[in-house]
Amino acid sequence: MHQYRSHTCGELAAGDVGQTVRLSGWVHRVRDHGGLLFIDLRDHYGLTQCVVEPDAPSFSLAETVRAEWVIRVDGRVDPRSEDTLNPNLPTGAIEVRISRLEVLSQAGELPLPVFGEPDYPEDIRLKYRFLDLRRDTLHANIMKRSAIIASIRRRMGEAGFFEFQTPILTASSPEGARDFLVPSRLHPGKFYALPQAPQQFKQLVMMAGFDRYFQIAPCFRDEDARADRSPGEFYQLDIEMSFVTQEDVFAAVEPVLRGLFEEFGGNKPVTPSFPRIAYGEAMRKYGSDKPDLRNPIVMQDVTETFRGSGFRIFAGMIEKDAAVEVWAIPAKGGGSRAFCDRMNSWAQGEGQPGLGYIFFRDGEGAGPVAKNIGAERTAALAGQLGLGDGDAVFFVCGVPKKFAEFAGAARARVGAELKLIDEERFEFCWIVDFPMFEWNEEEKRVDFSHNPFSMPQGGLEALETKDPLDILGYQYDIVCNGVELSSGAIRNHRPDIMKKAFALAGHGPDAVEKEFGGMLRALSFGAPPHGGLAPGIDRIVMLLCGEENLREVTLFPMNQQAEDLLMGAPSDVSPRQLRDLHIRLDLPKADR
Fold first, then answer.
1. Are 48 and 23 in contact (CB under 8 A)?
2. How confident is the model at residue 592 (pLDDT cuts 50, 70, 90)?
3. 184 within 8 A of 285, measured Cβ to Cβ
4. Which of 186, 481, 556, 583 sits a CA distance of 20 to 30 A from 135?
């Protein structure tokens, strides 16, 4: 028999009754039932109930065993009695009657329990992550992550993509988030950077003629943490394709993601064909470029209803500034003063003066707004928005660019409060037609709004003849349930178009040559039209596991301050290491 086990703790069943077996694992819990000791033994594969009788040679040793000790047991597989069967456990039809027990290692007093999974402070969970990972839910999430990545690799291969690895030590990029820098010992005073993404490398792969590339790519960004963004590092499904249009990219990626969510989504319906929504339309309808389409609320422009009306606050703003609009947020089932007042208070808590509203009862509108605009305009609003008794509508007024984000938050709040969101489905969409440029108010100049390496719609002619703020890019995001999974684009594969685009954003030819010389050289030697995107692995797994924080689907995450509490990173280094790198620290005074 093997030194440690003949079977795993998730393997034994009724067909094994009568066998003598050996199991090794962690003690999940110990129960004393009137002299009989029950030990639930756990390993990676499952849990088996083991029994020690008072007259067994190992009984005295079994009495000393505690939770999370690692033990080995030998014993006979017995059937459980009818009243002790556990149909929820794969091994629930049997138990192992222990004849011999050996302690392989002991565990000290636990800083957090493994059995029962009560909520514990983040700092304890991360410092003792190896214990946290023994918990059933987190352990299952990590295994699901592994299965998801394996499925992605299989699906990408079947779709004709080839997996390549790109460099981890590379040059610093002036665009995007802050780089993590790595000092060079061989080149004093110079630094490598960890890649924020393999963006330039994957484009170079296309220029090298490989046609279809993918990689489960590690990415590094020195930015603050969020629930849907890990500090420091994350992984993405990096994809690039040659000789493709935007629609070709969509056609290649949609089946992979749809199939993945159908496979691991717990039978929740998945959008059969992902709709394309223009950025401008998304902002006006949903107040967000990552809309949650499970929320049925669609905002509408009702400016004309308030123009010249008796509701002077809105009417005055409309008259004074032609850019001012009024948007309506319909709220089916929200037709009570209590709910409307609660939403108004929420808006004030968000730093807004309030949230105008009308609620409908007895065939008419009620509230100050309805009173001031009159019955005719109120009825017109109800007809336009499809509202009736028991419903409500909320209003935001101002310049859309300034209030759209708040309007989107209000839409989300109404949907959540009224339980209008269908939690049991995955709703995908493509957001397309992003503006290529935006106005940088701080620097008083035109700047890139999305990806500077994107192809502008209309090419060089658009850059030379159109107002930059009217130019759209072949840029797209993929969104699921209000979570942005990826940004992507059809790339700018022509040096002349690239130089012109950067010139409009205030970057002269010398600066472009210095910062992106390698890319320009590659484009100058025959670059195919190409495009791609990079869905976030961590976010995909988070959605498929039904979690709201990336920490719950990541093996060893950092905390919100970008600290690894388990390994003690970042840490001080020795003076000798600094001398080898020709580095002298100049710390802020407060840290000295």
1. yes
2. very low
3. no
4. 481
